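Hi, here's the filled form for the chain we discussed.

Project: internal
Contact: R.S.
Residues: 211
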Amino acid sequence: MSDTFVVLAVAVLLAAGGALAGAGARLLLLRLRRGTRIPPPWCELGVAAGWAAAGAAVGAGAVPVRWLPVLAGLCWLAVAAGAVDVRHHRLPDALTLPALPLVLLLLAPLGSGAVLRGVAGAVVAAAAHAAVHLVRPAALGAGDVKLAAPVGAVVAAASWAALVPAGLLAALLSGVAAAVLAVRGRGGAVPHGPSMLVAGLLVSAACARGP
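And the returned structure, exactly as it came back:
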């Protein structure tokens, strides 16, 4: 069995699972008190694409297999929370608050070192975002501060030094989004949550450590 076939098989299987998880995210958002209605198949496609990419990276040996549940969980959060943030410029507590304990639970199989880095990363990321929120609340909302904790936990678990590039990449992505909207005549505040989540996924996947 060729390596290419293995990579494709893993990606296809995870894409199918991701579509189901995305459907679950869409239904959950519909039922949350501060959720939203996302028409199908956007959540399904988003989670399926993310899980397929993570599976392909694992199948190709670029990401350790034990990191797959962590990246899959963060991808699901990125789609669910990002959908609400894009549509309504807010992040529901029902998604952001349980995310940190769930992330730490997913990090547990990676060892105590990963969990401790995750806890420290959550504190540092939340504190940094809280400082920006206090100075410029229009730039970062309270939901972004809460979301920074689970994202920072994953990034720091992958590599403590990755917190800085993850933060810079998130700021860059938000800046690019703002510039694109301005060019199209649709200026205004840009939700930072999606940029933070995408940057966290990319940086943690690139820096993920083996067992």
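Let me know if anything looks off before we file it.
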